[in-house]
Amino acid sequence: MDFQNFVNRVNDLWGQPKFKEFDLEFDQPLRELGFHGVPHKASAFIVPTSSCLVELIETPFLVVSLSEIEIVNLERVGLGQKNFDMAIVFKDFKRDVLRIDSIPSTSLDGIKEWLDTTDIKYYESRLNMNWRAILKTITDDPQNFIDEGGWEFLNLEASDSDSDGSQESDQGYEPSDVEPESESEDDGSDSASLVESDDDEDGSEEEDGSEEEEGKTWEELEREATNADREKGGESDSEEERKRRKMKAFGKSRAGPISSAAKRPKFRR
To answer: Read out DSSP for 5-67?
Structure first.
């Protein structure tokens, strides 16, 4: 209450005609958009206003004019962590980047809303950036920095879309010497059909042989079996047994047929 009275009294004084030449205005902090963070060594409650970002409780105090800010980079965002960091890059690249660390992730949406209302360009990154090296590169060759797109290298959404587009193009690319899978499947079906045709031919030959066997008479089949047994027996017999059969056959051919006298019938007297 005492502080509010002090503010009202100061505002009345600065409203007097003799102070109008200073063109000063009182800015009211937007505490509903405030967030906790570590701008120096200790955590503090940082409050944005319509023209500044201030922390006026813990020393050293923090007062950043929004007109001096070039961009804001929100770092360590999207890693599933409870906290993220804010890097404030000033328009004067010779100034060190102001870091506010360990901001709760629950304040992310509120900070984005505040940055949108102030028309400050902000980016998001998953890692902390080495800002000293980045600013040195920019100051060494500013024209090259502009030609390469400026701060767009911090645009996480653009880099993700480019990587997705490259993956889609890689998936859509098919080398000319690689045949589609459908043709390989057709080849497999053709080879399968070829195998089946060979089996069909073998089966048809067997059926033809069985039909030929069924067409022979019983006497022809018996004669073939006898000849086969005779050939097997001839192969198994020894040379002496074959000679013995020859001599026996020769002796039968020399001897005449044995004729027996017919018996006369006996008559009773």
So the answer is: HHHHHHHHHHTSGGGGGG--------GGG-EEEBSSSS-EEEEE-SSEEEE-SSSSPEEEEGG
